[in-house]
Write a structure and sequence with these properties.
The complex is a heterodimer of chains A (about 300) and B (about 450). Helix content of chain A is about 50%, strand content about 15%. Chain A is an alpha/beta fold and about 300 residues long. Chain B is an alpha/beta fold and about 450 residues long. Classes of the chains: A alpha/beta (about 300), B alpha/beta (about 450).
């Protein structure tokens, strides 16, 4: 865990397996020298599905690909890959400037259980602290055993304060306290942890709405962003998660965690395509610096083994 | 609510086959493409789907189907049989060692739910009369040890830890001595989450295994995992030769195809499932039931088992009779809610009933936390009103009920609406449950076409 890797090489090594799995197959396929026919498309479809992009989005992508191949009169199977990449980058790209931030800001970090919310908060706090911003954390996960301790450890590591109450207390009260602390300490950014919750538990989703309302009411001058943390190993349920969380509180962006494994994280393509929610950051390890800004080009390049 | 979406997909597919007198190969191929896509959408791994579909196809084009008068049903039957074959057909429990303590290692990726599962498993075994010890070997994640300690405390179970400065191998070893001295006959070892490609940390698990020689190594897998489930399961199994799998977060709405993938790739049984937020939310995994759930027959056996645990049988029987006759009053509604409350969350229960489409449940929107308010409202109704809901069309009655129960008129309206929707649903059920033989629901292989 100590080896210092550069920004890009980490992304690359994080996505190595992804590349090996997806890209080598694509290359096998496209270098085969065959024709551009139904078999080729079917195999491409399968490869995308294996990357967790999902049947629905994959079908759409393949349709777009077919259309462009026809329009541009492509005959060489090798060119098909470039177009495929192009299409996916297009889906993932977000017109707006991702990380322009207006201060003071409040980040609500939400997601299902075990995706890496608290760890992501630690890393995020580190990013902003390094930028010279005054960061405050709120221990809003009052449900899971020792979640408060966990965020406090991160607070210590990064060197930022954590507003907390006891386990079992009302998360809305913690956030309320944190908002007032952020105001009086003139914090630039308040990052609120929340308890992991499955998106189909109505009472917990209601609680999330309540916490959000408190920020809106008590801290109207802040710029609130709600960030969904998503585990890259998640399959098609990721789309439903995004949908349900979006219903409870507008989701402004995604942190895609655990991209350092063999999981492909292709579900973010489906989410962006269906719901328009962009990826903001990716998590590529357990270290404090293992959080990177998302870049659609790099992501797709790495996915297709084209990183130099 | 795993698999419901797959269920409806498959049903839709086979509806297309229904009208056909005889199938030709093209029909089967088309249906199989639908099956394939449905399984893929459910996150079953591509390799697994491919093989599964091949098997079903080769059986479906055989004469038994072609010459059958109901080829659609025949194909469904084959799909079901192959699914059951794939999932395994009986549940498997923990194998306790003849020379205690029984040593159980929990392993898996980060965030799969190992620590919570350690607690749930401990609680489950304690109920079986064992004296489990929870050993904290996750020295990496901040506060993981504390988490296990808190969980243990909540369950009144002993825990063993040595801080985060000792090696997990040493901690595991020392926990065995501790167990022997304290007469714990089971030790559950909570290990740190790790990536299956992290050689260094995988070696650590191998070393723990060598050192303590565990009776069970259980891979904890998040039910929401996608295609990657096979890679994870394959690596852990290859390195550690796991003895089984625990599926967590099965109470979400994931289709849970990972269950199929993991089972197929490792050949190891799924032993337990985590089904909720509470530390008592664990159940023995029933692969056969899961397979029937895929095909839309619902998890009736689980439902009956749960009901038997907590429901007064007589009352239940009365209620089900009323359901069938569609004489359903507010008193029944309340009664039913109280009974159901004992069984767990309503949405969980509903999800086990065959033929219930989750979309149907959404309109009803049952929230467990609203129950007590509903109770107050119903109790504020007169006897006549409860038996004859039509009386409640009168708005001054509604106002009185709101006052009496300390709620708003909107709340009363909502309850009445829910009741009406419930009545509607009862009507739909009663069509499906025509022959309930004393507590033993028949489970014929019969789909609504």
């Amino acid at each position: 865990m100590e080896d210092k890797q550069g920004f890009f090489s980490k992304l690359v090594s994080g996505l190595t397996k992804t590349r090996d799995n997806v890209a080598s197959k694509i290359d096998d396929l496209l270098n085969f020298g065959g024709a551009i026919d139904d078999d080729l498309y079917e195999e491409l479809e399968e490869i995308l599905i294996m990357a967790d992009i999902g049947v629905k989005s994959t079908t759409k992508i393949i349709e777009m690909l077919k259309k462009r191949v026809k329009e541009e009169k492509i005959k060489d199977p090798k060119q098909v890959k470039a177009i495929l990449k192009d299409i996916i980058i297009d889906i993932l790209s977000d017109g707006s400037d991702n990380n322009s931030m207006e201060l003071p800001a409040v980040y609500m970090i939400v997601g299902v259980n075990g995706v890496g919310k608290t760890t992501s908060i630690g890393k995020l706090a580190n990013v902003y602290k390094k930028e010279g911003l005054k960061v405050l954390l709120a221990a809003g996960d009052t449900f899971r055993a020792a979640a408060i301790d966990q965020i406090c450890v991160w607070g210590n590591r990064v060197g930022v304060d954590v507003i907390k109450q006891q386990e079992g207390s009302d998360p809305a009260a913690v956030v309320y306290d944190a908002v007032y602390a952020a105001k009086s300490r003139k914090s630039d950014i308040l990052i609120c942890d929340t308890a992991g919750r499955l998106h189909n538990k109505k009472n917990l989703m209601d609680e999330l709405e309540k916490v959000n309302r408190i920020v809106d009411r008590e801290y109207p001058e802040s710029h609130k962003q709600t960030i969904l943390v998503l585990d890259a190993t998640t399959g098609q349920n990721g789309v439903i998660q995004a949908k349900e969380f979006k219903k409870a509180c507008d989701i402004d962006g995604i942190i895609l965690t655990k991209l350092d494994g063999t999981a492909k994280g292709g579900i973010v393509i489906a989410i962006k395509e269906e719901l328009g929610i962009p990826v903001r950051y990716i998590g590529v390890g357990e270290g404090i610096d293992d959080l990177q800004e998302f870049n659609a080009n790099d992501f797709v390049d790495a996915l297709f083994n084209d990183v130099k | 609510m795993a698999f419901e979406n797959l269920t409806s997909k498959l049903q839709e597919t086979f509806k297309k086959l229904k009208g056909k007198g005889k199938l030709n190969e093209k029909d089967v191929k088309e249906a199989m493409r639908e099956v394939k896509l449905a399984l893929l959408e459910a996150d079953v791994n591509y390799r697994v789907v491919k093989e599964f579909v091949n098997k079903v196809t080769s059986r479906s084009v055989g004469s038994e189907v072609m010459e059958s008068l109901t080829p659609g049903q025949q194909v469904i039957k084959i799909v079901n049989e192959e699914l059951v074959a794939l999932m395994g057909d009986s549940s498997e429990e923990i194998k306790y060692s003849k020379t205690p303590p029984t040593k159980i290692m929990l392993v898996g990726l980060q965030g799969a739910g190992k620590t919570t599962m350690a607690g749930k498993l401990g609680q489950y075994m304690k109920k079986q009369g064992k004296k489990p010890l929870l050993a904290a070997c996750d020295v990496y994640r901040p506060a993981a040890i504390k988490q296990l300690q808190v969980v243990a405390e909540k369950l009144d179970l002993p825990s063993f830890s040595m801080g985060d400065k000792k090696s997990p191998v040493d901690i595991a070893k020392a926990s065995m001595n501790f167990a022997e001295n304290n007469k714990n006959d089971v030790v559950i070892i909570d290990t740190a989450g790790r990536l299956h490609i992290d050689e260094h940390l995988m070696d650590e698990l191998i070393n723990i295994k060598k050192e303590i020689n565990p009776d069970e190594i259980l891979l904890v897998v998040d039910a929401m995992t996608g295609q990657d489930a096979v890679n994870v399961a394959e690596s852990f199994n290859e390195k550690l030769n796991i003895t089984g799998v625990i599926l967590t977060k099965l109470d979400g709405d994931t289709r849970g195809g990972a269950a199929l993938s993991v089972r197929y790739i490792t050949g190891k049984p799924i032993k337990f499932a985590g089904i909720g937020e509470k530390l008592t939310d664990i159940e023995v995994f029933h692969p056969d039931r899961m397979a029937s759930r895929i095909l839309g027959m619902g998890d009736v056996l689980s439902l009956i088992e749960k009901a038997q645990e907590s429901i007064d049988e007589k009352k239940a029987l009365e209620l089900s009779k009323k359901m069938l006759k569609q004489e359903f009053t507010f008193d029944d509604f309340l009664e039913q809610m109280q009974q159901v409350k004992k069984m767990g969350s309503i949405s969980d229960i509903m999800s086990m009933i065959p033929g219930i489409d989750p979309a149907m449940l959404k309109g009803v929107n049952i929230d467990d936390s609203d129950l007590s308010r509903v109770e107050a409202i119903i109790k504020s109704m007169t006897k006549d009103e409860r038996n004859n809901p039509a009386l409640l069309k009168n708005s001054s009655r509604r106002k009185r009920i709101a006052r009496g129960s300390g709620t708003k008129i909107q709340d009363v309206n909502r309850v009445i609406k829910q009741f009406e929707q419930g009545q509607k649903m009862m009507k739909q059920f009663s069509g499906m449950m025509k022959n309930p033989k004393k507590g033993k629901l028949k489970l014929p292989f019969q789909l609504p076409f």
